[in-house]
Fold:
Amino acid sequence: AQTVTQSQPEMSVQEAETVTLSCTYDTSESNYYLFWYKQPPSRQMILVIRQEAYKQQNATENRFSVNFQKAAKSFSLKISDSQLGDTAMYFCAFIFTSGTYKYIFGTGTRLKVLA
Amino acid sequence: DVKVTQSSRYLVKRTGEKVFLECVQDMDHENMFWYRQDPGLGLRLIYFSYDVKMKEKGDIPEGYSVSREKKERFSLILESASTNQTSMYLCASSLGAAKAFFGQGTRLTVV
Structure:
C-alpha cells in the first residue's frame, strides 16, 4: 500500500526562525511527484512546493525548500524566516506518473508561528 | 488561475437524508477528486474520476457515490446521511500529475 507519514501532529516556531516539517512515504513506484500543501484557517489548500522524484536537486520556492532523500523515502519541508502568515496545516502528498493520477496525502502537521 | 467551486461552504442535514455535494472546475481538467478531511486523519480519498462517466473508488467509498456527467462537474452523493459522515469535504481537480487545485471545502454536519 502507498502511504504518507507525517510524524509531527503539531509544531510551533518563533517568528523569523526556521522550522522543518518531516514527511516519509512508502511506495514501490520509481516515478512520482511529491508535494507540500498548506491549508490556512480559510481552508483553501495552496500548493507550497513540488518535487519531481527523478530530479536530484531539491526544489526551492522563496523561503520554502525541501530535503528530498529518495533512497530513504523522505521529503521534509524547511520554512526559513517564518512569518505569522505561515500558520496553517501542512500536508505532504505524492502522486504517481503512471496509471491514474491519484494523490495520496499524509495526516498533516499543524504549524503555529509565534509572534 | 483555475477555479474549483463547491456549491456550499456549510451544510446541515438530517440523518437519512440524501445529500448532494457539487463541485465545478473551469479549466477542462480530466481528473477530479473528492476527499474527506478529519482531524488526525488527514485527507482521505473517497472517489476520483479521470474522465466523464469514469470513476474509481478511493480508500473510503462506503456510504458514498459519485456522478460525472459533464467534464467540469463532479458530484458526491451521500445516499442516506449518517452522523459519522459529519466532516469536511474537499473537491479537487488536476491535469495529469500537475498540481491539484482545491475548492474551499464544505463542512457537512449530519444531525
Observations:
- The two ends of chain B are 37 Å apart (CA to CA).
- Chain B touches chain A at residues 31, 33, 35, 40-45, 48, 50, 56, 58, 88, 90, 92, 94, 96-97, 99-100, 102, 104-105 (CB under 8 Å).
- The CA atoms of residues 35 and 45 of chain B lie 5 Å apart.
